[in-house]
Amino acid sequence: MATILIVDDDRALRDGLAETVTDLGHTPVPVASGSEALARLHEGPVAAVLLDLRMPGDLDGMATLERIRALPEPPPVTVLTAFASPANTIEAMRLGAHDPSPA
Prior knowledge:
The protein is of the alpha/beta class. It contains four helices and four strands.
């Protein structure tokens, strides 16, 4: 059973993703902001991160991704967004977001 960190400011989406992760047999750790995500990652390892790109507050998704990837042993990160663009897709991949598409 893997621990999956879910980072999204939208409570309904966060709860829905947590339910899906649970249904798949894993342990969800839902948080509402980038700063909460980084704090949780410093508490102990997680197997993967589902990260919203657009979040208000101190850290948006890109800034959070950059800080996660700077950790000594960063988990794989999949970026979720309803506002995809070529620019933010390229930037997320440049920062190390997981690319689930086949090679």
